[in-house]
Amino acid sequence: MLALVKDKSEPGITITRKPIPVISDDEVLIKVLATAICGTDYHIYSWDAWSQKRVKPPIIMGHELAGEVVEVGKNVTRVKVGDIVSCETHIVCDNCEFCRSGRGHICQHTQIIGVDTDGCFAEYVKIPAKNLIINDPTIDPRFLSIQEPLGNAVHTMLHFDIVGRTVAVLGCGPIGLMAVNLAKAVGASKIIAIEINEYRAKLAKELGADVVINPLKEDVISRVLAETDGLGVEVLGEFSGNKQAIEQAFKYMRLGGFMSILGIPSKNIEIDLSNDVVFKGLTIYGVTGRIMFDTWHQVKGLLRRLDLDKIVTHTFKLTEIDKAMEVMKSGNSGKIALIP
Question: What structural domains and CATH numbers belong to the chain?
């Protein structure tokens, strides 16, 4: 089969042929119909400091997918040959304290498809049956393939009630763009998007942002306060991982506000804990993955209410991975789909 393999400890990826995976009794073999590029994939492709510490080549990259079940292990009953599926990309142990108390998303022994095990940047991939989500086969596979990152947006934005509330989305990369569209779909009263890239700022507006602020052109704190009658936003979803942006966000949060943080800063964050958290009565939630499998049920129910045709902005052949990664690097894209 065709596969994209991270086989060297250096930037880039190798397009090669590998044997079709052999499944175990609890696994399923999937023919990949569509896959999508995640920020993690770009980190591994560019071989940054994080991936040098985390990834052990050789490994087939990729974890966001939609595909057709072509073979099932003898213990598998949840899915059948012919089903169109996507997958939860965190493989959890089911035995640690967190898994056994219904918190598998923070499993101590999590393995990630395409990071710790061979992924889906290939014509075929094997996945534990317990991780699979059965899809509506009438939906475009490109849209089905982005349910995993959409789950990150759903987990982040819907952990707190946003219906009828003022919401800020900090950072409009692909998941932030999903968050904007999601906030619109579920009924936030005002959506403020904060983004420096003009392409993504324009796309955020198209996806439902009422206000888009470019921190390079205006003072974010002043503008947010002006847009909220001086009170600040009630709920914030953080997707940027930017130190300055996160530190500023604490200044325009409303008293009693709620902050969900998905972005991963590379630098330590300095905040006035007393005035900006304690005395504000602020509630902060750290987002890891998706709640298994509550988030997936929410995603499934939202698919037809979102503008996924605007969120997926580019489609390439799997063999055009270098071109796709260049677009990803430019920042002038939403989600990028790959077709084997």
Answer: 2-145+307-339 (3.90.180.10), 152-286 (3.40.50.720)
